[in-house]
Amino acid sequence: MVCEMLGYDPYYLACEGRCIAIVAASEAKALLAEWQKLPSGEGAAIIGTIERGAARIVLETELSGERILDDLEEDPLPRIC
């Protein structure tokens, strides 16, 4: 709600404390199972796939729609650390 009031898109804001692993599809479930065994890994999940075709990110929404995430045209907001 705050992002909407300020005109920011949360998908383009800096986010700390996340890790993304890109692995072969045949190894993804085994890696996920091991990752979830770690003390802070219970929230680990498979969040997407890489497919042939145009280089773009397609977000599947909660309402079963799709949204293409465009490249940033400006610098992201500075991190406040």
Q: How do the strands and helices of this protein lay out in sequence?
A:
Blueprint: H1 2-6, H2 25-36, E1 57-60, E2 66-69
Antiparallel strand pairs: 1-2
Key words describing this protein structure:
2 strands, extended, alpha+beta, two-stranded antiparallel sheet
Structure at a glance:
With 81 residues, the protein is an alpha+beta fold. The chain contains two helices and two strands, in the order ααββ.
Description:
21% of the residues lie in helices and 10% in strands. The protein is α+β, with helices and mostly antiparallel strands and 81 residues long. It has a two-stranded antiparallel sheet. β1 (57-60) and β2 (66-69) form a beta hairpin. It starts with a helix and ends in a 12-residue tail after the last strand.
Overall residue-averaged pLDDT value: 85
The largest pleated sheet is described as:
2 strands, antiparallel
Whole-angstrom Rg: 16 Å
The main sheet orders its strands as 1-2
Gross geometry: extended
Number of helices: 2
Q: Tell me the number of strands.
A: 2
